[in-house]
Amino acid sequence: MASELNIEPLRTDVQNKSLGRHLGTTIRKLRLEHNLTIAEVSERAGISRGMLSKIENSLAATSLETLEQLANALGVTLAKLFQNYNLPRGAAQLVKKGEGMEVVRRGTRLGHTYQLLAYNQGPHKTFEPFLIALEDSLEQFPAFEHPGTEFIHMLEGTLEYRVGEETFVLNCGDSLTFRGEIPHRPENLIKTPIKFLAIIHYDSPMQEQTEE
Q: How far is 167 from 78, CA to CA, in rounded Å?
């Protein structure tokens, strides 16, 4: 029970130290960006040089009033001093070149590969980005249909792509966007190898998809 009672004060102390370091680093960075000395900023803010030095080195806590004075002295808002503090970690996912998860989708054939470029999105997917490579010019493709909107951007080769009753010739650098419920498929592989980015955005979070 005693250890439980000590958890919250310890956590608060750690958070305060972290905030102090962030504020000190931010104030120093802004001061140097404006080519200001400690003496100049302390005079403008109405605090001592020693106090400003301690704040910059996270050796002293300070009040919101003093922070506002420092913000004014540096020509920024008070909110600017707290910007980027305590941002959540793990909010970004890096997939290095060639390390996308190879997946088997409806229509996958020899020489027709899918690399999923973002995964572990939780139980409800909002989008799926694929890197798709096609190499066999004689391959035939079934029509695909799925919820949401699909965006295609050509990276290599030339592809004739069918969406409903229309066909589009896509060269490197071209993009195509269409509603996923309209039947669509690669019509002709004009110049191989072909590589394109396909991003499916779902209008509402999806649990499982059976696209392509």
A: 55
| Segment 189-204, tens digit of pLDDT | 999 999 999 999 988 7
Q: How far apart are CA 120 and CA 123, in angstroms?
A: 8
Reported pTM: 0.55
Give start-end residues of each CATH 2.60.120.10 domain in the chain: 101-206
**Residue range(s) occupied by CATH 1.10.260.40 in the chain:** 2-82
**Under CATH, which number does the domain 2-82 receive?**
1.10.260.40
What is the CATH class of 101-206?
Answer: mainly beta
Asked if residues 71 and 81 have their Cβ atoms less than 8 Å apart, the reply is yes
List the end-to-end C-alpha distance of the chain, in Å, as a whole number: 56
Of the candidates 147, 204, 211, 206, the residue with the CA atom closest to the CA atom of residue 185: 211
